[in-house]
UniProtKB/TrEMBL annotation:
Catalyzes the oxidation of L-aspartate to iminoaspartate. Its cofactor is FAD. Residues 444-534 form the Fumarate reductase/succinate dehydrogenase flavoprotein-like C-terminal domain. GO terms for biological process: 'de novo' NAD+ biosynthetic process from L-aspartate. The keyword Flavoprotein applies. The keyword Mitochondrion does not apply. Its EC number is 1.4.3.16. It is found in: Cytoplasm. Keywords: Coiled coil, FAD, Flavoprotein, Oxidoreductase, Pyridine nucleotide biosynthesis. This is L-aspartate oxidase. Belongs to the FAD-dependent oxidoreductase 2 family. NadB subfamily. The active site is at residue 291.
């Protein structure tokens, strides 16, 4: 039975709240939010809201780089083919074509905005990652590409006269009136609320890694954008496809730190705990096979050897190269007594990237007018069932620019919109009952369940059990939620329902979605998208 998820999760009356007006409201501060804000500021007043700071986002932790056709022996056609293969039959070819053709100019614009990519002999340095046929990955400071991009863009945002930034603010819900998004209800740092009214609202809120106990994502990745958009009535697409990065550090006392795919791109081997290389058993591209294949191969080897990890071995490469190319990874490993140049590094898969999200057109607009989505929160059609490494940063730049071009064509909001919007929750009496267990404990229980039942390998029995549990837990949304911890948990619950129901519905294995009870890919029945919308059953959309 489909749960009754409310449109809003906090009591409010817009006529009684203070109101701030802006042209463009940008929610989130990763590469998508920063770049979109900068482009929008050329013609509009921009308000950017981030629940921590400009430098805290998934982008900051992106090590490998940004994919774009730069080399003379490469071409958009090669990049497009690699992306389509990795996407396992679910990429939208039009969206991929946009990405590969407009990505190089996006990189040049990042450079103009101050991003310092690594150079070799005066030319942009390029590396290769899994499932790429050519060296087309630009990187910065060896393995700190995301941080360098955010650094450069944040400087631009801070110095811009028409971009206002609200740090430590939390967007509770998107507000709609007469079928249009007119802004958002925002929780301020002091606990008060404000209504931000905007001609256009752009979700750049990142992914949902915190659905899982083990993730490469920071604490802020709590699925806020997808959950808010779904509650507002937007269509979300392909939520069952969660990418697990094959190699996160798995060592006592250390966090699940991402060990970039670029390490394998530069020649690292995967070995099981017996010291044996094993990827030849699973794919002809060995360590450079698509991520979903590598991740499942690692799990298989862990089971065969009764271990909780495998090893990543780059000790055969020159130590100077390793230290120069991967300074962040090297220093992090050294902090825990592991020397990449002499030691095999223990790694295991961890939740990494959400391929699905808010469905958009090629201009980044959702099914709700005036509501846009960019970056990991969006489903543009580029990634299909399995994102090609380093395409995500390119996607954010390309579609951020397209969103701003579409916003230029929007008429102003009607003055009457938003005057009479109010909401009262139906079950305020449930608040005390829900507090029988602290929200932090409920969140941890959810994360553990998602690992066990909706993780890297799935089956119908576990998915149904998870769905039954979520059905009960979603009663948490029937009360008016006031605190950030509660709001984040509500968003995680909502997204967990979307992921689990989509995974149970798709009775095949494709890309990052693997069903032990349906292990084969079935194009005849399942080469189609899963669309979910509040108060409606899952709808299937066949590939055109």
């Amino acid at each position: 039975m489909k749960p009754q998820i409310p449109q809003y999760i906090h009591d409010f009356d817009l006529s009684a709240l203070p109101m701030v007006e802006t042209d463009v409201l940008v929610i989130g501060s990763g590469i998508a939010g920063l770049f979109t804000a900068i482009k929008a500021s050329e013609q509009h007043r921009v308000l950017m809201i981030t629940k921590k700071s400009l430098l805290e986002s998934n982008t900051r932790y992106a090590q490998g780089g940004i994919a774009a056709v730069i080399a003379e022996d490469d071409s958009p056609a090669y990049h497009q083919q690699d992306t389509l293969v990795a996407g396992a039959g679910l990429c939208r070819s039009e969206a991929v074509e946009v990405l590969v053709n407009e990505g190089p100019e996006g990189v040049r614009e990042l450079i103009r905005l101050g991003t310092l990519f690594d150079l070799e002999n005066g030319e942009l340095a390029l590396t290769q990652e899994g499932a790429h046929s050519h060296r087309r990955i630009l990187h910065a400071n060896g393995d700190a590409t995301g941080y360098e991009i955010v650094r450069a863009l944040a400087v631009e945002v801070h110095e811009h006269p028409v971009i206002d930034v609200w740090d430590e603010h939390f967007v509770i819900d998107l507000i709609t009136d007469q079928g249009e998004c007119i802004g958002a209800l925002v929780l301020k740092e002091d606990g008060s609320k404000v209504f931000v009214r905007a001609k256009a609202t752009v979700l750049c809120s990142g992914g949902a890694g915190q659905l899982y106990r083990y993730t490469t994502n920071p604490d802020v990745a709590t699925a806020d954008g997808v959950a808010m958009a779904y509650r507002a009535g937007a269509v979300v697409r392909d939520m069952e496809f969660i990418q697990f990065h094959p190699t996160s550090l798995c060592y006592p006392g250390a966090p699940r730190f991402l060990v970039s795919e670029a390490v394998r791109g530069e020649g690292a081997y995967l070995r099981n705990v017996k010291g044996e290389r094993f990827m030849e058993k699973y794919h002809p591209q060995l360590e450079l096979a698509p991520r979903d294949i590598v991740a499942r191969a690692i799990v298989s080897e862990m089971e065969l050897t009764n271990s909780t990890f495998v090893y990543l071995d780059i000790t055969h490469e020159p130590p100077e190269m390793v230290k120069y190319r991967f300074p962040t990874i090297y220093e992090t490993c050294m902090r825990y007594g592991l020397d990449m140049t002499t030691d095999w590094i223990p790694v295991a898969p961890a939740a990494h990237y959400m391929m699905g999200g808010v469905k958009t057109d090629l201009s980044g607009e959702s099914s709700i007018p005036r509501l846009f989505a960019c970056g990991e929160v969006s489903s543009t059609g580029v990634h299909g069932a399995n994102r090609l490494a380093s395409n995500s940063l390119s996607e954010a730049i390309v579609f951020g620019r397209r969103i701003v071009e579409r916003i230029e064509l929007l008429p102003s909001l009607a003055p009457s919109l938003g005057r009479d919007v109010k909401f009262r929750s139906m079950n305020n009496g449930g608040a005390m009952q829900q507090q029988s267990k602290p929200t932090s404990e409920k969140r941890l229980s959810l994360q553990k369940m998602m690992v066990r039942k909706v993780g890297l390998r799935r089956n119908g029995k576990n998915l149904q059990q998870a769905l039954d549990t979520l059905q009960q837990e979603l009663a948490f949304l029937d009360q008016s939620l006031n605190y950030r911890e509660e709001l984040e948990y509500a968003n995680l619950l909502t997204c967990a329902w979307l992921v689990t129901s989509g995974a149970l519905h798709r009775e095949e294995s494709r890309g990052a979605h693997y069903r032990e009870d349906f292990p084969a890919r079935d194009d005849a029945m399942w080469q189609k998208h899963s669309l979910q919308q509040r108060e409606q059953a899952i709808v299937e959309e066949w590939m055109s």
